[in-house]
Design a protein that fits this description.
The structure is a homodimer of 613-residue chains. Chain A is an alpha/beta fold. Chain A is 64% helix and 7% strand. Chains A and B meet through α18, α19, β4 and β5 of A and α18, α19, β4 and β5 of B.
C-alpha cells in the first residue's frame, strides 16, 4: 500500500548505470545556476524600504544610496568569486574550500551555515513566490501558508522523482524573468523621464509617520536587509564542474554576466520604487506595486507576477540540489548520518531531499510564510559562508602562489573583509529580529557534527578486526520460553531442535492454575520433550527468564539462543490483541546488557507464526 | 530510567499470595459503594435548574415537581435492584446479568454502555469536584481543566499502586459528606421556616428573561437532566460479593439505606434551591450558592465544598474499580484485548486503569471540565444498562420461578419499563446536546467487541493442534547477509556456523567499487568462507536478498534462517546514525509473506553487536 503510493508519487526505481553528468554551456549554466541570485530582486528592495519606513516616509529617499552600496558590495563579492572559480574547477563550495584551506572547525561552521541557509532559501523563496501570487490575487492571501506548504511538497516530490538539472526546464523561466524585469525597468524609467506616469496609488496615501528616529543603526539595518540581494551568488562557484571545459574560464564569464544582470535589476527596481514613491505594505509586494503603477492590471502585470513566482520556485529548487549534495559530502566525511549518502531509487539523495522539505515547511508554518519575518534569519549564514570561503581562498593563494596569485589574493581578501564586516553588522542589527536563532543554531549544529563524527570513530574502533578477533562459538544452548501449547509453539520447538543439541523448553509460572493445565496438555501432545517450570512469585515473565538464560552463560564463547514463538498478525490492530512478550523480552535484554559483559552472547530469535486473518 | 520512575510512582511489585478479598459490614459497604450515587446530588439539582432557566426565572418553580418525579423513579429503580441483589449474590453487573439472561448482543450493548459510563463518571465527577473547589476559590476557575487532569492523574497513580477498597479510607469522606449535606438541609429548612434567612445574592439579581418557550420538551429535558441523580445506584448490586454473608440480605438493607439518604439529600437540596431563589450560573455551583446563602463564607461553607470535592473524587475512584473489573471480564470472554486481563505488578488490572485515566482525561480536556457539557452524554448509557439489567432479571424470574418470584418480577418489570422510558426520553431530549455521541459510540463499541472476538476465535482455530500438526524441520539453511567486514560480521558468521551445516554468506552489490574492496578484505581475513555476491542493478538491498532466500525454499519443512549482524547502539540517537537494514528486511518479510505460502519457513535472527559508547 505505502509502497504503491510511493511508486505513483516518485516513479519506478532507476538502474545505477543511468546516473550521468550533464555538462552545460554558458547560456544554459546561467539559467541553471543564477535563479537563486536573480530571484532575490523580488524581495531585496522591499526589505530595505520596510526598515526605512520605520523612520517615516521621508526616510525612503535613503533607499537609493543604500542600494548603491549594496551594488558595490555585490561587485566586490563577484570579483572575489571570479578568482575562486578559476582556482577550483572541481567546485568551490564553502564547506570544501574551508576544509581544505582552514581546517575542520571552520568547515563545520561553513557546513552548518550553508545547511541552515539552504533551508531558509526554500522558505524565503517560496514565501516570496506565494506573495507574488497573492499580490495579484488578494483573495488567496489568507491561504498563503497552505499554498507555500503545498508548493514545497510539490518541489520535494519532483526532486524525489529526480528532476535532473535540465537546462531546458530552467532556461525558459529564468530568461523570461530577466526579460520581464528589464522591460519593466526600461518602460518604467522611460515613463518617469517623460513624466507620462500617474502617481502611484500608494504614494497618494497619507505620509507614514516615523515610529523610530532615523539612526545610523536603522540605516545599517536597512543596508543589511538589502544584502539579501547577494544570496545565491555563490551558486556558480559551487557548480563549476557542470560547465563545459574550460570550466573555470566559462564559469568566470558566466559569473560576470550574472553579477551585471543582478546589479542592473536590483538598482532598476530600487530606482523605480523611489521615483514612484512606493510605500511597502502588507498584502502586496513592492515589485507588484511598481508593476501595477506602470502597467495597471494589464496582462503584462500578471506576466511579471507569474515570472516572479516561477523564478522563486526555481530558486527554491536549487537548494534541493545543494542541500542533499552538501549533506552527502558531510555524511561521507562522517559528520552527518550515513543514510544521507545513500542513493535512492531514483538516483537522488532522497533522505536529504525529504529533510529539506520537512524543515523548510516547518519554517514556513512557524513564520506564517512571511518573507519579511524570515529575512533576519536568512543572510547571516550566507555571509558567514562567504567570509569563510574567501578567507580560505586567501590562505590558498598564500600556499600555492600560482602565477597571478597577487591579483587574486587582493580580490579575495577584499571580499573576505567586506563580507566579514557585513556579517558582523547583520548579526548586530538583526540580532533581536531573528538573527540570534541562526547564531545560536550554528554552534549547536557544529556540536552535533562533532558528536556524530565521534560516534562513528568510536564504532570503527570497536569493530576493528585488527585490534581484537571475536571469540568463536564453543558451546550453544537453545532456550524456548512458552506460555501455552499450540501450533506456533510446536513449530518453535521443532525449529529449536534443528538449531542445536542442548534445547530447554521452559514456561514461567505466572498463574499456577494455568501452568498445571499446560503441563497436562504438554504431556499429552509432546511427551518426549521435558517442560521446565520457572517460579515467578511477582508474576513477571521477563526476570525469571533472564535469570534462567544467564545461568547458562558460564564461560567465554557459550552462546544462548532464545527461540520465541511469535504471532505475526494479519492486520495492524491485531497487534494490540496479543501480549507482546517477545518485544518486552528484547527490550529487557537490550536494557540489561550492561549488567554483564556476557550480554553479547544472548541472541533472540522470533519464530514467526503468520496469522491468516 | 523509565523503570525507576515507575517504581517511585507505583511502588515495588507485590507477590501473588497477597491478593486477598476483604469482606465488608453494612456500614463500611455503604461508604465504599455509595459514593458514586450520593455524589450526584452535587450536580443533579443544578442540571434541572440549568435547563429550566432557559424558559426564564419563573420556570424555576417547576424544579420541585420534577425533583419529586425523579425521587419516585429512584425508589422504583431502588426496589428493582433490591430484588436483584437477593438473586445474584455473586454480583449482578449489567454485563453479567444480560449475558446470562438475554444473550451475547444485549450483554455487549450493556458492556459498551457501562465502559462509556465509567469513563464519563470519572470525567463528570472530577469536573464537578473541581467546580466545588473553584466555587470556593474563584481565582482557580481558569485552571479548572489543568486541575481536573492533575486530579485524574493522581487517582490513576493511586489505583496503579493498588488502593484496595479499604473501608477506612472511604468511610470518613462519605459519612462526612452525608453529615455536611444533611446539616446544610436541616439548618436551611429551619431558617427558611423561621424566616430568619437573608435573600440569596443570586435572587436579588434581575430576573432572567426566557430564551425559549416553556414546552413539554423542555420540561422533559429538565427531568432527564436531573435523572443523573440515579447514576451510581447500581454499584451495590454490582458489589454484592464484598458484603459479609448473608450477602444478599446485607446488600439489600444497605441499598434501602442508600436510596433513603440519596432521596433525602436530593429533595432537600432542590427544595432549598427553590426556596432561596437560587439561579444557576457559571463559575459557582448551586450547592455552593445554597451553602453560601445559609452559612455565608464561614468555615462551614468551606467544609461543605471540601466534602463535596472529596466525595466526588471517591465517586471517580469507584470507576477505577469498576472499569478494570468489567474490562477484565470482557477480556476473559475475548471481547476485549487479553492484556486487560493481565494482573500487574501491584495486583491490579493496570492496563484497564491506565486506559480509564487516558480516556477520562481526554474527555475532560475536550469538554473543558464542564459538568454541564458532559451531562448530556452521561446518563444515556446508565439508563441503557439499567434497562438491560432489569429486563434480564424479568427473564431470570420467568425461568427460575424461585419462591416469591411473582413480587420480584413485578418490581423488576416496573423498573425495566420506567428506565426504558427514561432512556428513550434522554436519547430524544438530549440528542443534539451530546447524547448522539454515546448513541453512535455504543454500536461502534459492540462492533469492535465482535471483531475482537472473531479474531480470537480465528486465531484459536489456526493454532489448534488437533486440526493440523506442524511440519517438522527437514532441512535447514542459514543465510548471512553482510554489508562489510568487521567484528560484528565475523561474530555473526561464527554464530551461523554453529546453527547448521548449510551456511551461505552473501553481500548485495549496491556499489561495485565497495563490493570489490570488500571481496579483497574478505579473502584476507576469512579465506575459508566463500562470500557470494548478489547483483542489484536498482541498488535495492531487500529484493535481491529476498529472491535469494526464496530460492532455497523448495520443499515443505525446509527452514531458512537469515542471520543478520546488527548494531545495538548505546544511546537512542545513535539509532539514526546506522542503516537499519535488518529492520527494513523484517518489515519486507512480514509484508511479502502473503506472496507465498512458504513465508512461514523464513526466520530472521539478529546477532546483536552491543556498541559501548
Amino acid at each position: 500500500m505505502l509502497s504503491y503510493i510511493k511508486r505513483i508519487l516518485i516513479g519506478m526505481p532507476l538502474p545505477t548505470y543511468r546516473m550521468s553528468h550533464e555538462r552545460l554551456g554558458k547560456v544554459q549554466a546561467l539559467a541553471v545556476l543564477s535563479s537563486d541570485a536573480l530571484s532575490s530582486v523580488a524581495y531585496a528592495t522591499e526589505e530595505i524600504l520596510m526598515v526605512l519606513i520605520l523612520a517615516g516616509s521621508a526616510a525612503l529617499n535613503l533607499s537609493w544610496p543604500i542600494a548603491l552600496a549594496i551594488a558595490a558590495l555585490l561587485v566586490i563579492v563577484g570579483m572575489s568569486y571570479y578568482q575562486t572559480v578559476h582556482a577550483y574547477p572541481k567546485g568551490a563550495g564553502s564547506y570544501i574550500v574551508s576544509r581544505e584551506n582552514l581546517g575542520t572547525l571552520p568547515s563545520l561552521v561553513a557546513g552548518g551555515a550553508l545547511l541552515t541557509d539552504y533551508i531558509l532559501t526554500v522558505a524565503v523563496s517560496i514565501s516570496a513566490g506565494i506573495a507574488a501570487i497573492t499580490s495579484a490575487f488578494p483573495p488567496l492571501y489568507p491561504w498563503r501558508v497552505e499554498l507555500a506548504v503545498v508548493a514545497i511538497a510539490f518541489i520535494t516530490i519532483m526532486n524525489l522523482r529526480g528532476v535532473r538539472e535540465s537546462a531546458r526546464v530552467f532556461a525558459v523561466p529564468t530568461y523570461f524573468f530577466i526579460a520581464c524585469i528589464l522591460t519593466l525597468i526600461g518602460v518604467g524609467i522611460a515613463r518617469v523621464l517623460t513624466g507620462s506616469i500617474q502617481p502611484a496609488e500608494a504614494a497618494t496615501a497619507t505620509a507614514v509617520q516615523a515610529a523610530q528616529p532615523l539612526t545610523l543603526f536603522l540605516l545599517l539595518r536597512a543596508f543589511t536587509s538589502g544584502c539579501t540581494a547577494l544570496t545565491g551568488v555563490e551558486a556558480i562557484s559551487d557548480g563549476v564542474p557542470v560547465f563545459k571545459p574550460p570550466e573555470g574560464e566559462n564559469a568566470g564569464k558566466t559569473l560576470l554576466w550574472m553579477v551585471t544582470i543582478l546589479v542592473t535589476m536590483f538598482l532598476g527596481i530600487t530606482f523605480l520604487a523611489h521615483q514612484l514613491g512606493i510605500v511597502p505594505r502588507e498584502g502586496e509586494t513592492v515589485v507588484s506595486q511598481i508593476a501595477r503603477t506602470i502597467f495597471d492590471r494589464s496582462i503584462f502585470y500578471y506576466l511579471i507576477q507569474a515570472a516572479t513566482m516561477l523564478i522563486l520556485v526555481l530558486a527554491a529548487n536549487t537548494s534541493y540540489a545543494d542541500f542533499p549534495r552538501l549533506s552527502m559530502w558531510m555524511a561521507r566525511d562522517r559528520f552527518l548520518p550515513r543514510q544521507l549518502a545513500n542513493v535512492g531509487d531514483r538516483l537522488v539523495y532522497a533522505n536529504g531531499i525529504i529533510l529539506l522539505g520537512l524543515f523548510s515547511s516547518l519554517l514556513v508554518i512557524l513564520f506564517h510564510a512571511s518573507t519579511h519575518a524570515l529575512i533576519p534569519l536568512y543572510a547571516v549564514g550566507v555571509f558567514t559562508s562567504f567570509t569563510l570561503n574567501q578567507t580560505g581562498m586567501v590562505r590558498y593563494w598564500l600556499r600555492r602562489r600560482t602565477p597571478g596569485w597577487q591579483t587574486s589574493i587582493i580580490f579575495n581578501a577584499l571580499g573576505a573583509v567586506a563580507t566579514f564586516i557585513v556579517a558582523v553588522m547583520m548579526a548586530v542589527t538583526k540580532f533581536i529580529h531573528g538573527a540570534w536563532i541562526v547564531l545560536a543554531l550554528i554552534p549547536l549544529l557544529v556540536m552535533m557534527f562533532k558528536a556524530i563524527h565521534h560516534h562513528y570513530e568510536e564504532v570503527a574502533e570497536q569493530l576493528s578486526l585488527s585490534l581484537r578477533w571475536p571469540t568463536p562459538v564453543k558451546k550453544h544452548t537453545v532456550v524456548v520460553p512458552v506460555a501455552g501449547l499450540h501450533r506456533g509453539v510446536v513449530k518453535a520447538v521443532y525449529y529449536a531442535k534443528a538449531l542445536g543439541e542442548d534445547v530447554h523448553v521452559v514456561t514461567v509460572d505466572v498463574n499456577p492454575e494455568e501452568t498445571a493445565k499446560l503441563l497436562e496438555r504438554w504431556k499429552h501432545y509432546l511427551p518426549d520433550i521435558p517442560l521446565e517450570v520457572l517460579p515467578s512469585p511477582y508474576r513477571s515473565v521477563v526476570e525469571p527468564l533472564m535469570d534462567y538464560v544467564n545461568s547458562f552463560i558460564d564461560e567465554d564463547g557459550h552462546y544462548v539462543t532464545i527461540v520465541m514463538p511469535e504471532f505475526v498478525p494479519a492486520r495492524w490492530w491485531h497487534f494490540f490483541l496479543h501480549n507482546q512478550t517477545a518485544l518486552v523480552l528484547k527490550w529487557a535484554l537490550n536494557y540489561a546488557r550492561r549488567d554483564t559483559s556476557q550480554g553479547r552472547f544472548r541472541i533472540i530469535t522470533d519464530v514467526p507464526f503468520y496469522l491468516r486473518h
